[in-house]
Design brief:
The chain is of the alpha+beta class. It has one domain (8-142). Helices cover 16% and strands 36% of the residues. It has 3 helices and 8 strands; from the N terminus they run βαβββββααββ. It has helices at 10-20, 92-99, 106-111; strands at 8-9, 29-33, 36-47, 52-63, 66-78, 84-88, 113-117, 150-151. Strands 1, 2, 3, 4, 5, 6, 7 and 8 form an 8-stranded antiparallel β-sheet that branches. The longest helix is centred in the first third of the chain and has 11 residues, at 10-20. The radius of gyration is 15 Å and the shape is globular.
């Protein structure tokens, strides 16, 4: 970990970010993929043990000149945040667990130290944060987010 960087547990960080209202200092990223557009947040979570960055994202299509989200994704990039590795319609912990192909348990992943990157200042969270991510579907269509995910690049 870098000096002067706040360390969080990976199992709590997804809910902390969603509830913090933190503004990204890095721009959101768009990439064309599978006939649509992948939009990922400028805020990301770095897992040093696995040397990956985890982002929230949406798979979108263009409608009347505007991006329209189709579904929510958790997206994994390499350590340098340049190579796309994997995505799934799951929370952070479950997506990384799938990408690792069971090399550790979800419970172990929840305890992994992580760093938040792409925000201008530290944020403080209150009590009552659930661990393991929310698994919510922000598209709001009432469907459960359960996909096998897509693997890209090296594991």
């Amino acid at each position: 970990m870098e000096k002067n960087v706040t360390e969080y547990q990976f199992g709590t960080i997804e809910d902390i970010l969603r509830n913090s209202g933190a503004e990204p200092t890095e721009p959101d990223r768009t990439a064309e993929m599978d006939g649509g557009i992948l939009l990922t947040s400028g805020i990301h979570v770095y897992l040093p043990r696995f040397e990956i960055n985890v982002h929230e994202g949406f798979f979108c299509h263009m409608e009347d000149g505007q991006l329209e989200p189709l579904y929510f994704l958790t997206v994994i990039y390499d350590r340098t945040d340049k190579e796309f590795l994997y995505d799934a319609e799951e929370n952070f912990v479950d997506t990384v667990h799938q990408w690792l192909k069971g090399k550790c348990t979800p419970e172990q992943l929840e305890q992994e130290p992580c760093e938040v990157k792409g925000i201008g200042e530290e944020f403080i969270h209150g009590k009552g944060i659930q661990t393991g991510g929310s698994g919510r579907n922000p598209v709001g269509d009432g469907t459960a987010c359960r996909s096998a995910g897509r693997h890209h690049g090296k594991r």
